[in-house]
Design a protein that fits this description.
This protein is an alpha+beta fold. The chain folds into 2 domains: 107 residues, Glutaredoxin, CATH 3.40.30; 149 residues, Glutathione S-transferase Yfyf (Class Pi), Chain A, domain 2 (Up-down Bundle), CATH 1.20.1050. Helices cover 46% and strands 10% of the residues. The chain has 13 helices and 6 strands. A 6-stranded mixed sheet has the order 4-3-2-1-5-6. The chain is globular.
């Protein structure tokens, strides 16, 4: 028996009202339906000096906490691997607890089983959201930084081997900053502006800005490259990679960023492969965890909670562009 149209319309109206309420909890929007990332309180304290760090035992080293699915934490993790800081910073993985809506520490650290426990242990103000990435001094104990933007700069200056690359050389500060000003709002945040848009007009604005920025990157790589700032891999590349490596498995299917598949940007496709093949990078990429956390946790975008399959990441990234 067919469902009467009035019942369908009533159900749709009710669901849309509920959806708007749920989306408000997921991410705020302005009066025109454009997603606006909430401003978070950040903690930035002075890191221990080099002499103090060199004198510490292994268990006393500062702690870098990341989550596999968080693209902002991925930036910090990449700098940790690219600069080979494994012997200078301890790494701890936080896992997303979908039901509890929190980050769980695995294994627990100093009796802290969740990231919120750790923030409290470090005497962070109660108003601060317990987010990743976070850099912790275990001796004080104190949160040194919990904002990915300054954190990648801090990690780039962290005491390392003499052969460790400088990802933010002084002669490239200006182009790195220029790329950051373009990519952060249009691409890194742009995919969320698409996924969390409240109406078609808001989505269209976000999508247009997103693909215009990708075209700009494609054009720059075509005439320059192989990296965003020329011959050297820099923080500009590090800030873009976490978004583009999640493109095919999360942002295109779930956030609607599907106007063009990434392979239609051949320079970007090759750039992503080169970055993925860089020593230490592949180990930071876990597409299974990304799909579980995005499709499984973002209920307003995927009410059924169904997590789709996707091509194996290495095969996807290294595959040839279709002819």
């Amino acid at each position: 028996m067919a469902i009467p149209p009035v019942v369908v319309q009533t159900a749709r109206s009710g669901w849309h009202w509920q959806w708007q309420r749920l989306m408000g909890g997921l991410g705020p929007a302005d009066a025109d339906g454009n997603y606006r990332r909430p401003v978070s309180d950040h903690l930035n304290n002075d890191a221990p000096d080099r002499a103090e760090l060199e004198g510490r035992d292994e268990h006393e080293r500062p702690l870098l906490i990341v989550g596999r699915s968080c693209p902002w934490a991925h930036r910090a993790w990449l700098v940790h691997r690219l600069r080979r800081l494994e012997g200078r910073l301890n790494l701890l993985m936080a896992t997303a607890d979908h039901r509890g809506g929190r980050w769980v520490l695995s294994p627990a650290w100093n009796g802290c089983h969740s990231l919120l426990d750790l923030y409290r242990h470090c005497n962070a103000p109660p108003s601060h959201r317990a987010t990743v990435p976070v850099l912790v001094d275990p001796i004080r104990p104190q949160i040194l930084c919990n904002d990915s933007a300054p954190m990648v700069d801090v990690l780039n200056q962290w005491p390392a081997e003499e052969t460790a690359p400088d990802l933010n050389p002084s002669e490239l500060h200006e182009p790195i900053a220029t790329w950051q000003d373009l990519l952060q709002p249009a691409v890194n945040d742009g995919v969320y502006r698409c996924g969390f848009a409240r109406n078609q007009a808001a989505f269209d604005r976000a999508e247009s800005a997103l693909f215009a920025a990708l075209e700009q990157v494609e054009s720059s790589l075509r005439t320059g490259g192989p990296w965003l700032c020329g011959e050297r891999l820099t923080l500009a590349d590090v800030r873009l990679f976490p978004t583009l490596i999640r493109w095919d498995t999360v942002y295109a299917p779930l956030f609607g960023c599907s106007r063009q598949p990434l392979w239609q940007f051949p320079q970007l496709w090759d750039w992503r492969r080169r970055f993925f093949d860089h020593p230490g990078v592949k180990e930071t990429c876990d597409a299974v965890a990304w799909r579980q956390d995005y499709f499984g946790a973002l209920f307003p975008l995927n009410p059924g909670g169904i997590v789709p399959s996707a091509p194996e990441l290495t095969r996807l990234v290294t595959s040839r562009i279709p002819q």
